[in-house]
Amino acid sequence: ARQGSTLVSMKRRDKDFPFLPPAHRALTLDLFSAIDDRLDSVLLPSTVPSDVLRFQNPQGTAHGSVEIRSGSPTSLLDLVLQSWLHCKLPGGSGEINITTLFGFLNSTSHAPHLLVELIQGGPSSLVLVIDLLPRKDVVLHPDYLDEFYLETNLDGPRQDLERLPQVSPYRSPSLFIRSVLSPTAVAVTINGGKEVDALAFEEVMARHVGEAAKKVISIWIEKCLGAGQRVLEEERDGLERRDGMIKRKAVEIDLVANLPKMFGPEVADRVVAQVQKAFRVV
Amino acid sequence: ARQGSTLVSMKRRDKDFPFLPPAHRALTLDLFSAIDDRLDSVLLPSTVPSDVLRFQNPQGTAHGSVEIRSGSPTSLLDLVLQSWLHCKLPGGSGEINITTLFGFLNSTSHAPHLLVELIQGGPSSLVLVIDLLPRKDVVLHPDYLDEFYLETNLDGPRQDLERLPQVSPYRSPSLFIRSVLSPTAVAVTINGGKEVDALAFEEVMARHVGEAAKKVISIWIEKCLGAGQRVLEEERDGLERRDGMIKRKAVEIDLVANLPKMFGPEVADRVVAQVQKAFRVV
Fold first, then answer.
1. Among candidates B149, B180, B184 on the partner chain, residue whose Cβ is nearest the Cβ of A139
2. ipTM score of the complex?
3. Dihedral angle sign, alpha carbons of residues A199, A202, A206, A207
4. Per-residue confidence (pLDDT) for residue A10, from 0 to 100
């Protein structure tokens, strides 16, 4: 595994997310490598075809990549999705860059899923979501909150980030996305502002966002992928129904609503179909 | 009913919440009257004993009232709880004033419950929660979000309030409370600040908070208490289990954790027991 992860990291550095802005790119590299390094032994090789692993629009103004690796059959992992999207806005009015990291568990565990998303709409302005998504109705199961959110102090990274002057709370326009997030979710806007130099933004990204995201990723790997999380047979149907809704909505809100505008219908259809297949929500 | 509500309002004005600060008192009067005026015909008389309808601590530094009226047997209403608490802090370091309004539906409807809470910790600083609490796991039932939250534009009052410079988002220290709120919940801190005069705070309270709360109360009465919300027999068990958890936790977090400190164990026990009895969560 040690050998394997070094190879993956090297491959990763080689790919290098060529279009993302520097601080965003460094962070993406850092987070994807953290996942690859620690989960390589339980992840199967990517089965995504090369025209989804790397795609662009006909004009060459939009570029993207979606990589999906399934968990090995004996693990609690369903799949890990890592994607980045880059799109120049019409008329030279800037660009949008989106990085997404999903870690879904399968229904032999009820532990939370991992979500990290960076949506950068300007050189020093970014929406950040870092969360472990509950797999159950936590109102009916408050012990779930205690186990995965309170005892792990998942509210700590959120509090640390929200104390920074560049950071303010973010609410998704989608009521579903707001509802799917946990009560300790990091959901913030980071804004360098006009008067602050880019350095402040880059430092927030490199130091504070990186630290918070890696803390949550560590909790996910240690607590949620660890032993002792297997669930009873009769719980699995409920988990699969709820997970299916999360995945269907994620495709609908994240991809179906955005990819056609960015990449045109043909590329969008191809990428969406591949993700739906991997998510088993066709 | 018209006659009845006039009587109730007059009685209300007579009681007058003697200990609440002026802006808080006016708002409480306004909201409680809105409920009384519009729901009087479907609410039975209060059955709460007089020493719960009005109580104080032995030293006379804390005063409170809890009134609970059940819905008539043919209505969708389970009960309405209206309470206010006033407590001088030791050493003359200020006072705390709390107003709570709960409107619970029974399990013949799956429409949301109503919650309005004002927690005033200083002359011009207040935590405000206004929400319709979902009765279902909305991740599994996104159509529930569409029906009760999107189509009613419940996000509007929240957006209006959060635009004000005196208003900033509030997160309850309780992860359960955060989870029980809807994705359009108003959960904010209103802070007059040291340099702003009390007038600004009072205006925010009278105009903006009052307007938002009354808008949400109207939506609740028209949409949730209206016809067409009755549910199937087989859904009721699930609703009752989930409602039971909300009520149990509300008593635990709102009352059991605070009343003994404010009123001493004897008064606290009496009030808690009465609420538990009305909530059927003994």
1. B180
2. 0.92
3. positive
4. 47
